[in-house]
């Protein structure tokens, strides 16, 4: 009698963590397998044999059941062959009594080798003609004690079928956890791929840009007179010469090649502008602007064409979009736009660094551009060039702009007050972003640029007031000489007088020695270099945008959280392509005390849960300072660091503080931290509450782009909750800790910063 393992129930997966035979644990490589004869669970090696049950597909069986089966059908057990005992001629009733059946092909069972072929003994006895009945046993109960079981084979043959197996399957937490881990690993692969791609693209890049000398940085590039955009003053339309001559006397062979590239790019742009583009695909369209997409000769990918009607003269429009400093001040696409060098003949080298646009991270490039008169208007063409001294910035992908890109401005109608601007966007932004995603993003960005950004800038939203007279002078000086050097002597004299007056006023307001509670280096305006003056202008621009948003602005807000006197909003504002947060709170505390808690760097570094490091690096005059900060991890957001310039002023009987990110070679990104970016408009205002002298109102804007791979949805869920927690828990606790401070101490602190 051959004995088999007494098993009558299918073993669920979760009941076995190890192989029944070798006792090795199951892993992602060592998988679980059921034996179809006994129902136990084994690994691959211990269940590598196969049997065919009822002419179904070959099924796994364990070694023990397989060997027992071979012994049962071996030549030594001929007595078990029903044909030798004459049972083939038994009556049908006798066969039914013994549990046997007729030779039905649907119930044959054959033994196979591990490779799936029929197993035959060396003798000529035909064993495959033996008929065996496969006992089907329920997966939930014991079914081996019946009459049919006694008359059939002494082993359990679990049929291979989805119905029987699905009834035996049970969902277990361990299986769910394993599936979750596998899915999480697969889902994270695109993020790792993206991060590694950006890393290898920027691994050989330089931390700073070098133009003429190794010590020169990006912000030390030759500037233009238009770089200085005074608040609520007329924008300057002329550029100052850095060398004193209209064009360089001698050009190197490399610079002569740049000039040729610029002229070829201008010729190609004119050809493409005059060519028929009626077959291009329309992406966006309204009464004043139309954006299309199509192919351009020599470029393997789709490029974009935008044509828009703008209510201004061609000279005003050229002044707005051509002068680097003016363009940088209002254009939401540009973070940095600087002229590197003039090459004469309307040709110059320009460095551009863009802001992120949707899923497209920041890009930079060095371009040569050429300007000409064309059909009563102007044509400006650009093309990328390589300059060894200006490598890609760390963390920013170097884009490429082939010939054919640029814009054309021509008058529309006879009034001279309407212009048509046609722009060809041909840039290859490189990186890992799919071209299909770019085509969805760039078209919408161009349409928004011509329907919102330019009209708003012309309307003076950014404090720009480009008069027709100044624009005419700019164009006249631009094309007055072969070199195209923009010169306006009247504007130059006005600028020098204004700067001298401001320096005298600044010097008079700066005390002879530092304030008693301030030990950080304080620099007078005349001691500031070009880079530090640029930081001051960035701080002033951030302050202007902050006050504009506080007083109404262009934001579209919805309430995220509200309780008692604290309301957290989430929405969008112009110039920022992601959601930002706004907090409006009535605080039951003196205004000077709240300003001290939220402004003082030393207190924030020691007592704030948000900041790990919050250090003042230097003062830039009386109302500007440079700080370096490192944040702690907040939920799913890992630590960040940033260098900021802060500026403050009195506002409606209270105070206003604005900040924005700057680049400083002294502070590269810290190891283990992601370098975040705070655009213009971040900060807060503190104003007294009318009729309640012991209270103040704070309006705070959080607009930082924390970078990294964290999905924006996670950021939106985290930041709003942290702001609410600050006003409901952290700030009251800080007020309680500083209740021993007197009003005289608070007033003395305020006098240090506000004259």
Description:
By secondary structure, the protein is of the alpha+beta class. It has three domains: 13-170, Zinc/RING finger domain, C3HC4 (zinc finger) (Herpes Virus-1); 206-273 and 280-495, START domain (Alpha-D-Glucose-1,6-Bisphosphate, Chain A, domain 4, 2-Layer Sandwich); 510-753, START domain (Alpha-D-Glucose-1,6-Bisphosphate, Chain A, domain 4, 2-Layer Sandwich). 30% of the residues lie in helices and 24% in strands. It is built from 16 helices and 28 strands. The strands form five sheets. Strands 18, 19, 20, 21, 22, 23, 24, 25, 26, 27 and 28 form an eleven-stranded mixed β-sheet that branches. A hairpin with a 7-residue loop joins strand 20 and strand 21 (580-587). It is globular. The termini are far apart.
Mean pLDDT: 74
Rg, please?
39 Å
Q: Tell me the number of structural domains.
A: 3
Number of strands: 28
H/I helix tally: 16
Biggest sheet character: 11 strands, mixed
Distance between the termini: 108 Å
């Amino acid at each position: 009698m051959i004995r088999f393992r007494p098993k009558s129930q299918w073993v669920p997966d979760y009941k076995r963590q190890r192989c029944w035979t070798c006792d090795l644990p199951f892993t992602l490589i060592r998988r679980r397998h059921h034996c179809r004869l006994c129902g136990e669970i084994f690994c691959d090696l211990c269940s590598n044999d196969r049997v065919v049950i009822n002419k179904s597909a070959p099924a796994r069986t364990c070694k023990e059941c397989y060997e027992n089966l071979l012994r049962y059908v071996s030549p030594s057990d001929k007595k078990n062959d029903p044909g030798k005992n004459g049972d083939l001629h038994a009556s049908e009733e006798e066969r039914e009594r013994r549990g046997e059946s007729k030779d039905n092909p649907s119930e044959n069972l054959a033994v196979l080798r591990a490779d799936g072929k029929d197993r035959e003994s060396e003798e000529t006895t035909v064993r495959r003609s033996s008929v065996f009945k496969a006992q089907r046993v329920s997966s939930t109960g014991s079914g081996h004690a019946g009459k049919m079981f006694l008359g059939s084979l002494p082993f359990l043959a679990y049929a291979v079928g989805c119905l029987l197996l699905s009834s035996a399957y049970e969902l277990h937490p361990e299986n769910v956890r394993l599936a979750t881990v596998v899915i999480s690993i697969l889902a994270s692969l695109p993020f790792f791929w993206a991060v590694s791609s950006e890393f290898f693209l920027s691994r050989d890049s330089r931390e700073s840009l070098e133009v003429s000398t190794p010590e020169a940085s990006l912000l030390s590039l030759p500037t233009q007179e238009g770089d200085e955009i005074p608040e609520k003053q007329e924008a300057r339309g002329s550029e100052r010469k850095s060398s004193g001559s209209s064009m360089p006397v001698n050009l190197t062979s490399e610079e002569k090649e740049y000039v040729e590239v610029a002229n070829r790019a201008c010729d190609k742009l004119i050809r493409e502008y005059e060519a028929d583009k009626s077959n291009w695909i329309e992406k966006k369209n309204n009464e004043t602007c139309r954006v299309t997409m199509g192919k351009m000769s020599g470029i393997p990918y789709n490029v974009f064409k935008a044509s828009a009607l703008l209510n201004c003269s061609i000279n005003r429009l050229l002044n707005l979009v051509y002068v680097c400093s003016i363009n940088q001040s209002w254009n939401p696409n540009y973070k940095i736009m600087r002229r590197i060098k003039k090459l004469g003949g309307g040709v110059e080298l320009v460095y551009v660094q863009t802001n992120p646009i949707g899923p497209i991270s920041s890009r930079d490039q060095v371009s040569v551009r050429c300007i000409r008169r064309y059909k009563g208007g102007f044509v400006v063409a650009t093309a990328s060039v390589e300059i060894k001294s200006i490598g890609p910035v760390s963390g920013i992908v170097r884009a490429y702009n082939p010939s054919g890109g640029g814009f054309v401005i021509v008058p529309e109608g006879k009034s001279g007050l309407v212009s048509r601007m046609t722009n060809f966007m041909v840039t290859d932004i490189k990186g890992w972003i799919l071209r299909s995603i770019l085509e969805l993003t760039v078209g919408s960005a161009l349409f928004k640029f011509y329907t919102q950004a330019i009209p708003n800038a012309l309307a003076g939203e950014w404090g720009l007031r480009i008069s027709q007279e100044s624009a005419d002078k700019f164009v006249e000086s631009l094309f007055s000489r072969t070199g195209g050097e923009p010169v306006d002597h009247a504007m130059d004299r006005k600028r020098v007088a204004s700067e001298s007056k401001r320096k005298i006023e600044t010097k008079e307001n700066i005390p002879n020695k530092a304030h008693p509670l301030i030990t950080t280096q304080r620099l007078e305006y005349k001691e500031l270099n070009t880079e530090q003056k640029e930081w001051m202008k960035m701080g002033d621009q951030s302050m202007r945008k902050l006050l504009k948003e506080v007083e109404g602005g262009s934001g579209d807000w919805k309430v995220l959280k509200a309780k008692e006197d604290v309301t957290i909003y989430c929405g969008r504002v112009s110039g920022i392509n992601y959601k930002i947060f706004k907090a409006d709170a009535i605080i039951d505390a003196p205004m000077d005390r709240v300003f001290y808690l939220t402004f003082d760097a030393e207190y924030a570094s020691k007592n704030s849960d948000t900041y790990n490091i919050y250090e003042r690096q230097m003062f830039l005059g009386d109302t500007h300072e440079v700080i370096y900060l490192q944040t702690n991890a907040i939920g799913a957001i890992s630590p960040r660091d940033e260098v900021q310039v802060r500026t403050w002023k009195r506002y409606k009987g209270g105070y206003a503080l604005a900040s924005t990110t700057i680049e400083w070679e002294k502070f590269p990104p810290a190891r283990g931290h992601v370098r975040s970016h705070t655009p213009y408009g971040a900060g807060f205002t503190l104003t007294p509450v009318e009729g309640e002298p012991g209270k103040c109102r704070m309006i705070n804007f959080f607009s930082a782009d924390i970078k990294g791979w964290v999905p924006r949805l996670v950021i939106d869920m985290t930041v709003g909750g942290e702001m609410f927690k600050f006003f409901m828990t952290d700030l009251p606790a800080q007020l309680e800790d500083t209740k021993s401070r007197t009003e005289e101490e608070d007033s003395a602190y305020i006098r240090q910063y506000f004259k």
